[in-house]
Amino acid sequence: MPDSARDLTDLPSAPAESGRMPPRMQRNRGAARVVIGPAGLADLYQKPPCRVLFPRVEKGEPPAAVMVTTSGGMTGGDRIDYEVSVAPGARATLTTQAAEKIYRSLGDEAEMEVRLEVGAGGYLEWLPQECILFNRSNFVRHTHVTLDPTATLLAVEAVVFGRTAHGESVTECALHDAWRIRVGGRLRWADGLSLDAETIGRLHDPYAFGGALAVATVVVYTPDCAARLETARALLEKALKKETKPAFDADGELEPQPSPRDTSAAPERLKAGVTLVSGLMVTRFVGRDTAELRGCLMDYLMALRAELTGLPARLPRVWRI
Length: 321
Known about the structure:
Number of helices: 4
Mean pLDDT: 86
Radius of gyration: 21 Å
Order of helices and strands: HEEEEEEEEEEEEEEEHHEEH
Low-confidence stretches: 1-16
């Protein structure tokens, strides 16, 4: 059913000769806005198919919000807008309930716009789970981040090319994934990844993706990023070798961890590196085994979180469901 008068006027008229209305593809236009203040949730807006859930967290943890897409994924013509604002001195953890699935498109783009803002002394963990691209999908995502110079950000985005457990492979795909991060009003980092029917073969190019089936980017900003670079490199090396320590919850019970990984052939299947770019730490992952990359990424994020904040080395529980 149309949800506004405007929708009624947009409906095509039925041809007189047939008396039937031509088919109209249903499209999703979802949005969610979350504002976190020092005392917790300060403002919330959600438009289907987007919903926001607020699970209980352990004592001392930042308030957490879980983004849910009730449509089960996106396809050509869909659009989702996420906006997250963390007030000065506030802390927040934002994640997604599951991996975002981008289904086959008939030609139109599936669009996602993400806007993150962190005020003075604020802290934001932007930890969405991976985005799975189906064959012949068409996905455009823009992530805009605005930070106060005294804020702290831990953000991740991961992309998986096909459901490998189902024997799927991506031979046709269009992807444009762009980041823009501004600190104190000044552009500090601009990044973009574009693939189309002509360049998707770069997934197998040894000088590009090297046969990778999944890629991920972790971005960290804190006022003393440069001083933390070598520590981050050491944490990444431990994650690649599966040397991170298990985390415990407030009751002393062992937190659920990623399943054990065989790291004997990790250099061939999984590669990662971290560097400093304009005062931000950027870590890249490329892997031929999606489960192995996810496990290593989780280990690294947990260790990095503990190093940055002194909080326990854990991720939102939805990452382990």
